[in-house]
Amino acid sequence: MGVHKTTVGEVVTAVSDALARLLDHFVTFPTDGQIAKVKQKFFLLGDIPNTIGVIDCTHVHIQAPRQREWEYVNRKGRHSINVQLVGDADLAITNCVVRWPGSVHDARIFRESRLFTEFQTNRPDGVILADSAYPLLPWVMTPFPTANTPSQMRYNNAHGRTRSMPNNTDLYCATQYRCPSQSPPL
Q1: According to its UniProt record, where is this protein located (predicted)?
Q2: Which of 78, 43, 97, 99 is nearest to 178 (CA)?
């Protein structure tokens, strides 16, 4: 298109900064008035009551940065940013953390997030479903590592069904916003 790479980089940076400033206006956790409807929609997905969100991290591939390149190498040996997303049953992102290099584990991103700090002191009216990378907390439910009983198997199946639809948010984001010079998507 006849535009120098430096100019493109500056424009991308300016647009990214502008979007980041608007993030809190568009990405919001359900309010007290919305919680009942969110719980109902999640229950219809997988029969787990009291669910107000699902959480997971996804790696968005990037080109190797010039500074601290090693920090961005994820467990698959690719350069990425590890993005934490919380979603609702309608695939809306209700919370996100976009600041950690690919080498950082999901649990650390979670522990250092504003969401974690807020919910540790002000417990939410419900639970967030997470995979086994996350800690089990009064407000975070993870699957049983090994389901030994029929009830544990039923719980793990319900947990998986409830998480599966909103978890597609991660896949969508990872495939839509990957670095164009790298393929395939995650």
Answers
A1: Cytoplasm; Nucleus
A2: 78
